């Protein structure tokens, strides 16, 4: 981008004055940020128009990534980086007496997602643009994002996240691209003169879907794709139908707030309204685009790929069928061929409680025509498969059963590709969770191991490491992440290893400053920083981490001189507001933090830091400061994990069970550069099958563990009478669903080995280096190129 520092300074000042009618020096950080963002948006608008024009002209196939959640993080720096103007802007601001980082922090981090699934969608958007693929995001513009988390007396409190309170400089409202989404109504049929059946859908409640578009800028390639988020409004000129306040509120409610559940679905009417709303709006706008191309309908799958991120957008399948059948008057067989060839589906979980199922009556009332189409898809599926696979297997794959509509079944039957998100996860889907479907459609199943974008997670989050890498191995890794492997050649280079240690130390200081300022806890940057950051869920086993902390606590109480590494245990986690047990664990961790952090006998050998309101921005601060990455879910439960990849890329050493993508991380980094412990996935399966696990017995027979668990109920930890008892019971009396007690010894042993390794600085630095050097394959650029090549059949533009 042709742009120089002097020019930038002039433009920035001008923009600021235009917007706020005074000089930038008197503006707030927020105002300075808005002026800068507005200016930057202007700088890429030509490329944005050009990209769209090119796509239209070449009629290239495009992918539309449908996701109920996106977690982009703050966009200013990532836009500057990808546009190649970071240094220029930084210097220009500096000459104006401003600090880019300070200005950037004024941006609100849009929390339009829950966790891994939403963040993956945003890494993918960055990679789609950066690898030069024609692709767009399709989602919901929630008025309120994921709740803001506060701790009061150690308990999680949820506050509304009004992320749009200031102007959102990146979005562009496109009223002329709005579409109508119809709910309810009556369906009837008439026969035409020509014998054709005509569908009439009347008395519907019509909602206007207005798109807000945000540029997704490719890395140094001039490509700018689109993320389209839909907002629900009252249709213009239809105010008569929405005359009461209640009716108007009902419309707004559809895109008012993100459901805060991760790995657990809410079978509520409003949720399914959201799902249909953005699926329908997205499909309608795609069909409108396709019609502009003036091609035969049979070519639809040659121009369009629709990818559904988990089952949340599955109604895109019957919606596309509806449009092709009712509006475009294709035959069922034509419409079905097109739909299957167009849609592909990613599964993100095997947890039964996360599988979406809607009551039949809910769908028939809310979406009568869609319901009929789902019934017909189901009827034809059963008719066709029954003679081939017999009654039992076929019925197990039915979309409708026991008064419920199973969305995963619809997604699999109505698509041409089903993928899991790590090798192990895909294997479990094929062998177990979705085995019946695998028998029917083996060719649909494939694996796409998740990835992350090192642009955000290394270049932006870890400038110190970026600089050190550039000096040591050049800049090739920035455009081709695999190239980071050349760092391996420096594994025994003492100078490089020392530099790496200095980088880590600087990042730890930065985080320590934050912790001191925001939480008034003093932590030592030389201590080992042990990090577990992810949603709070029983299967992720934050509690196992807690048991380890309590073990150390007791060791130090027994012997203040015990030979233990000084450690800071860092947690970041939100619990779903209705997930009572997870909230109890939060309270427990906060109570233990209070106890341990303030116990002079512990002498700062253990510190516990549970950051409030963990999200993308805090992740960018914590990840570069991590020494140990805790990835300790019960084997078989975590589909992939992605914080494991981010932490590895920043030189943290993984402490892991063989779950999700941890398996592939181990394969890449080698056994000597990772700490593995615990049950394997097939061993867990075996325990579930034969039912011989007895946690009570372990409790009784393991005195060390017994002593720790008793701390929960004997008053040793003040303020957790209820929580301590409930958690104790879940582990000891109710047979420990996630096998914490079984994995405890192995975990302690691995943690002990980590202590030993950390005390040998050269050894530890080498492990960190090997992790960084082995992280290239986990770039989402490669993941996305595999989706493009094997599922979407689209090629990078050059
Ligand atoms: C959100 C809403 C519902 Cl109804 C169900 C699940 C979710 C959700 O947020 N799931 C989620 O984040 N799953 C995670 O996806 C990641 C990306 O694939 C995986 O790495 C992670 O293992 C998985 O738990």
From TrEMBL:
Phosphorylase is an important allosteric enzyme in carbohydrate metabolism. Enzymes from different sources differ in their regulatory mechanisms and in their natural substrates. However, all known phosphorylases share catalytic and structural properties. Allosteric enzyme that catalyzes the rate-limiting step in glycogen catabolism, the phosphorolytic cleavage of glycogen to produce glucose-1-phosphate, and plays a central role in maintaining cellular and organismal glucose homeostasis. GO terms for biological process: glycogen catabolic process. The keyword Transmembrane helix does not apply. It catalyses: [(1->4)-alpha-D-glucosyl](n) + phosphate = [(1->4)-alpha-D-glucosyl](n-1) + alpha-D-glucose 1-phosphate. Belongs to the glycogen phosphorylase family. SUPFAM superfamilies: UDP-Glycosyltransferase/glycogen phosphorylase (SSF53756). It comes from the Bacteria. The keyword Transferase applies. It holds the Pfam family Phosphorylase. This is Alpha-1,4 glucan phosphorylase. Its cofactor is pyridoxal 5'-phosphate. The modification N6-(pyridoxal phosphate)lysine is found at residue 646. Its EC number is 2.4.1.1. It comes from Trichococcus flocculiformis. Keywords: Allosteric enzyme, Carbohydrate metabolism, Glycosyltransferase, Pyridoxal phosphate, Transferase.
